[in-house]
């Protein structure tokens, strides 16, 4: 059937001597308010091709609220990048990045000083019975001993509950933390959401090894070759069990990163394994997005939905893929309110109720007085009257 679909000739219209491969439907032209189907502007062609007449089912807005307990704002403490929320025996659990003290940036001359809010960080666990008031359950995954692959920072966790076990994936940095450091992804496994967590001996995902730095200066923008989209860092891992395999979605950062239309040169990739602990093989179709910052994905109608925020020409969109690889834009996130930072979805919700049901509520982070703290977000649709 795929071959027949690929070879089927689409209706087209002519504009001068150029044949435009867009299907033109009289009713669609009327709905979109297009004056003349035989003379289409570039905007009208996009509207027809991308079906700008689609309803509001993929469209959403967001609101946020402060929450109680350990996630109340605390001066001098960084709490950010909450994982998905899981429900185990009537209790909600989430995992988050925690660090203490202000950041100093690079080039202080002191390699022990904190360079980013997520530097010198570890992964902590919190629990709640109502999703509003949270208590700390303590350290989940700490930094490794000196010389190990995760001895500098452990941060940006995501959790997967599968077959009675719990899998934490997270970013790691090996000291020293420099501009040219190459972030990797680690994993820890437990039989309970409270641990104890056992780390794997090696990272499960590493950057592509095909870029080349220019000179010896610690400058990540100076390169001879930029390499693949993930040649410097693999960030924001998110692990899903999909099609009887384990799909590890991640954000890639490139050596010599530039700014293009829509901002930073940030894209997502996916690596796939037969077992949760790997080995993971990167998809030959990577990168699978043109945009996005923190990875936010969920299952829907046999495929995978995604919320792409912050970076790239398709930022602040909700997309869907029938196969977890090939994503298409379904909507632009509405309203003046921005999407939540590092949205941690509530994984036990019924995601089949609607395209945005997975976004009903979750956790995110915000900034106050120079410090990051965790909040709750909710999605809603506000119809025009």
Automatic annotation (TrEMBL):
InterPro entries: GH43_arabinanases, Glyco_hydro_43, Glyco_hydro_beta-prop_sf. Pathway: Glycan metabolism; L-arabinan degradation. One of its GO terms (biological process) is carbohydrate metabolic process. The keyword Hydrolase applies. Keywords: Glycosidase, Hydrolase. One of its GO terms (molecular function) is hydrolase activity, hydrolyzing O-glycosyl compounds. Signal peptide: none annotated. SUPFAM superfamilies: Arabinanase/levansucrase/invertase (SSF75005). PANTHER family: ARABINAN ENDO-1,5-ALPHA-L-ARABINOSIDASE (PTHR43301), ARABINAN ENDO-1,5-ALPHA-L-ARABINOSIDASE A-RELATED (PTHR43301:SF3). Belongs to the glycosyl hydrolase 43 family. This is Glycosyl hydrolases family 43. It comes from Arenibacter palladensis.
């Amino acid at each position: 059937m795929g071959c027949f679909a690929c070879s089927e000739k689409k209706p087209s219209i002519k504009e001068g001597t150029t044949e435009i491969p867009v299907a033109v439907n009289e009713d669609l032209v009327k709905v979109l308010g297009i004056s003349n189907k035989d003379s289409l502007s570039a905007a009208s062609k996009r509207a027809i091709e991308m079906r700008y007449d689609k309803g509001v089912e993929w469209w959403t807005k967001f609101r946020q609220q402060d929450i109680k307990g350990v996630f109340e704002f605390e001066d001098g403490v960084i709490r950010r990048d909450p994982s998905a929320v899981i429900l185990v025996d009537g209790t909600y659990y989430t995992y988050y990045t925690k660090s203490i003290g202000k950041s100093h940036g690079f080039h202080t001359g002191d390699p022990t000083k904190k360079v980013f809010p997520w530097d010198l960080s570890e992964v902590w666990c919190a629990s709640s019975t109502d999703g509003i008031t949270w208590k700390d359950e303590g350290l989940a995954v700490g930094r490794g001993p000196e010389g190990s692959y995760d001895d500098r920072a452990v941060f940006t966790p995501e959790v997967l509950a599968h077959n009675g076990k719990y899998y934490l994936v997270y970013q790691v940095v090996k000291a020293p933390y420099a501009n040219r450091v190459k972030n990797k992804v680690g994993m820890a496994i437990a039989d309970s959401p409270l641990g104890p967590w056992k780390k794997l001996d090696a990272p499960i995902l590493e950057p592509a090894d095909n870029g080349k730095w220019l000179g010896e200066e610690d400058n990540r923008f100076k390169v001879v070759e930029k390499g693949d989209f993930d040649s410097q860092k693999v960030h924001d891992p998110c692990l899903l069990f999909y099609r009887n395999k384990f799909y590890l979605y991640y954000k890639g950062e490139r050596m010599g990163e530039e700014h293009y239309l829509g901002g930073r040169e940030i894209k997502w990739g996916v690596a796939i394994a037969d077992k949760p602990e790997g080995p993971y093989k990167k998809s030959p179709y990577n990168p699978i997005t043109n945009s996005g910052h923190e990875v936010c994905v969920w299952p829907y109608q046999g495929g995978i939905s995604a919320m792409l925020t912050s970076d790239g020409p398709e930022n602040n969109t909700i997309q869907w893929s029938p196969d977890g690889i090939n994503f298409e834009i379904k909507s632009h996130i509405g309203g003046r309110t921005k999407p939540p930072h590092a949205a941690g979805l509530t994984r036990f919700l019924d995601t089949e109720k609607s395209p945005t049901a997975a976004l009903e509520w979750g956790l995110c982070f915000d900034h106050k007085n120079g410090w990051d703290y965790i909040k709750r977000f909710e999605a809603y649709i506000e119809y025009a009257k």
